[in-house]
Amino acid sequence: AQKVTQAQTEISVVEKEDVTLDCVYETRDTTYYLFWYKQPPSGELVFLIRRNSFDEQNEISGRYSWNFQKSTSSFNFTITASQVVDSAVYFCALSEVDSSYKLIFGSGTRLLVRP
Amino acid sequence: SAVISQKPSRDICQRGTSLTIQCQVDSQVTMMFWYRQQPGQSLTLIATANQGSEATYESGFVIDKFPISRPNLTFSTLTVSNMSPEDSSIYLCSCERDSSYNEQFFGPGTRLTVL
To answer: What value does the mean pLDDT of chain B take?
Structure first.
């Protein structure tokens, strides 16, 4: 069965610190997609990244980077030099080709960046 | 990215009444999804809505409680019927940019409070 685990419920850091949000997934499919979304206090879900199961290259986008490791079924998200505006709930999600691409979300990690 | 709007953005309703939420996409999309986010929780898929066919509901959700319409490729509605306080949640619609890209974008959500 498919499952996404975000073990960190809440993380608090001081501005400019680096922070890594963990995501571990379970799936029996060989073709699947992994996502990260940001949900700021306004409530809107902001798409951050999509990664397919055949692409294990790490990705960097500005202060954001993602580390995908199939061997450990993990898709971790790192924010470098965190800023107060990064404060939000971050969700990791999985979709499988065999499940019509519906998203299975993790429980989310609330990140608080203090000035 | 697709632009998705939802109406209403929020509502306060009385127990036993029904509310219809509208979701409008600025381009034609094949698949639309409806999610529920209960207070402090993650997102759970209610149903998948394809144009021209009946919606497909996830376990724990039934058509009588959450009827869905999908009259064309840019619009869908979700009705929350015979509401109780337990239905107080954020309801979000989402769509894929296209099926080959599997990149889901979300509307701003409808924040529902049932008294």
So the answer is: 91
What's the pLDDT tens digit per position in A49-93? Answer: 988 898 888 888 899 999 999 999 999 999 999 999 999 999 999
User: What number of C-beta contacts closer than 8 Å exist between A and B?
Assistant: 53
Distance from the first to the final alpha carbon of chain B: 36
**Regarding beta strands A10-14 and A109-114, do their DSSP bridges make them parallel or antiparallel, or are they unpaired?**
parallel
Q: Which spans in A1-115 are helix H?
A: none
Give whole-number Cα distances, A27 to A80, A96, B28, B89, B97, in Å. 29, 8, 30, 28, 24
Nearest to B42 among A91, A100, A102 (CB): A91
The amino acid present at B52, given as its one-letter code, is G
The two tokens of residue A50 are 């999509």
CB pair distance less than 8 Å for A47 and B31: no
Whether A100 and B48 lie within 8 Å, measured CB to CB: yes
Count CB atoms within 10 A of the CB of residue B89.
22
